[in-house]
Automatic annotation (TrEMBL):
Major site of localization recorded for this protein: membrane
Residues that bind ATP: K112
Record keyword ATP-binding present: yes
Annotated SMART domains: S_TKc (SM00220)
Organism expressing this protein natively: Vitis vinifera
Source taxonomy: Eukaryota, Viridiplantae, Streptophyta, Embryophyta, Tracheophyta
Protein name per the record: Protein kinase domain-containing protein
């Protein structure tokens, strides 16, 4: 019985094998070409994804930094949580109470809860604080993280500074800070005020510079605080119209005592000069004696300077020999800062230069004429001593306050003087 099925012959088998091999080669080539194309097409995608992986945290940090530059508006519930229901009080005053707290990430804060008042001035001070320090950032200015304002409360949220305000160290018998550190505090405070006056887009006048408004961190690094009286002003406007007395008696410039007298940023310079006197003396400027006569330290400094005896004055203040040159320099800078005429007071950037010791401080004229006479021209009397109110007086001096010197020239001047 025959069958229809018959095994392939050798020729048929060879042809079939050749066809299969050819097909596999073609398929292999197509696969290789596909893989090469896919790899080339995938490279930019992989690079883009890798770039995204690298850039995502960077971009996130960038956006966080941008957000930090503006104060955040917190709710009353958040502040209650941050302060553990206001359990720790840091201080209090006529403005309200300051509480210690911390954010959820552990960053410590100080929450100033302001006394609510229908008085328009209270609202203006709140807006001044947020509107000025809230738009600035400098290492010598206290950081405002945010605020809270609703129908029940107004509060300001600041960075927490461990060592509190400068006044408790200046006027303490313990003298916990060495004088060299006090000098650094003076320079840092001057830099903060110089930033407000000369580096902000709009000049900021603080109006209340005093030791109580200089806060110190854990390393006694100074930061200017309390901008409740501060005011923004256009740089082109050299004078401001200010209604009412501003600042703290004993630190405020004499122009506040005169009616219709223009107020400039130089009022902060005067206040800073008063702060310098208190650093040198480590005492309050004014003391009332047993016979009710006032012992006023700034006047005493001028009298000692006029006699050429500042060195003895620094000894009487308990300043060690290694610090006396800086103390004498600081005393001369303070005398410049408290000149009666605002134009005769130095710029804060010049104050920084003089305190740091890179320039020669020029002899200051006699201040405090306003203590002996009252009148609309009282602030111009400082110029009668021979000091010009212009900032440039000669080729030898870059200003009326200091003269640029180099170590070589200083050495030459000493040799000439001794010969």
């Amino acid at each position: 019985m025959s069958s229809d099925f018959s095994p392939p012959t050798d020729n048929n088998s060879g042809v079939a094998a050749a066809v299969i091999v050819s097909s596999l080669v073609v398929v292999g080539k197509i696969a290789v070409i596909y893989l090469l194309c896919a790899r080339k097409a995938r490279k930019p995608i992989v690079k883009e994804l890798q770039a995204r992986e690298v850039d995502a945290p960077t971009m996130e940090r960038f956006f966080q930094e941008i957000a930090k530059e503006k104060p955040v508006r917190f709710t009353a519930q958040q502040l209650c949580s941050f302060t553990a229901n206001y359990s720790t009080t840091l201080g209090s005053g006529g403005f309200g109470v300051v509480y210690k707290g911390q954010f959820l990430n552990g960053v410590k804060i100080a929450v100033k809860v302001l006394n609510r008042s229908p008085d328009r001035q209270a609202g203006e001070q709140f807006m001044a604080e947020v509107g000025t320090i809230g738009r600035t950032y400098h290492m010598n200015l206290v950081r405002l993280y945010g605020f809270c304002h609703d129908q029940f409360m107004s509060a300001l949220v600041y960075e927490y500074l461990e060592n509190g305000s400068l006044d408790k160290y200046l006027f303490s018998e313990a003298r916990e800070i060495e004088w060299e550190k006090l000098h650094h505090i003076a320079v840092g405070t001057a830099k903060g005020i110089a930033y407000l006056h000369e580096e902000c887009v709009q000049r900021i006048i603080h109006y209340d510079i005093k030791p109580g408004n200089v806060l110190l961190d854990a390393n006694f690094f100074p930061k200017v605080a309390d901008f409740g009286l501060a005011k923004l002003c256009n740089r082109d406007n050299t004078h401001l119209t200010v209604s009412g007395y501003r600042g703290t008696p004993g630190y405020s410039a004499p122009e506040f005592l005169l009616k219709n007298h223009p107020i400039t940023h130089k009022c902060d310079v005067y206040s800073f000069g008063m702060l310098l006197f208190e650093i040198v003396g480590r005492r309050r400027n004014a003391k009332i004696g047993s016979n009710e006569s006032m012992d006023w330290f700034p006047k005493h400094v001028w009298e000692e300077y006029e006699k050429g005896d500042l060195a003895a004055m620094t000894v009487a203040c308990g300043i060690e020999e290694k610090d006396r040159e800086k103390a004498e320099r600081m005393s001369m800078v303070a005398l410049w800062c408290v000149q009666d005429s605002p134009d005769s007071r130095p710029l804060m950037s010049a104050v920084v230069k003089m305190l740091e010791g890179g320039v020669e401080v020029m002899p200051p004229p006699k201040p405090f004429h306003y203590l002996y006479s009252v009148g609309i021209n009282v602030l111009q009397q400082a110029n009668e001593t021979g000091t010009s109110s212009s900032y440039a007086t000669s080729k030898e001096t870059n200003s009326i306050w200091y003269k640029e010197t180099t170590p070589i020239m200083a050495k030459y001047e000493i040799q000439v003087a001794s010969s």
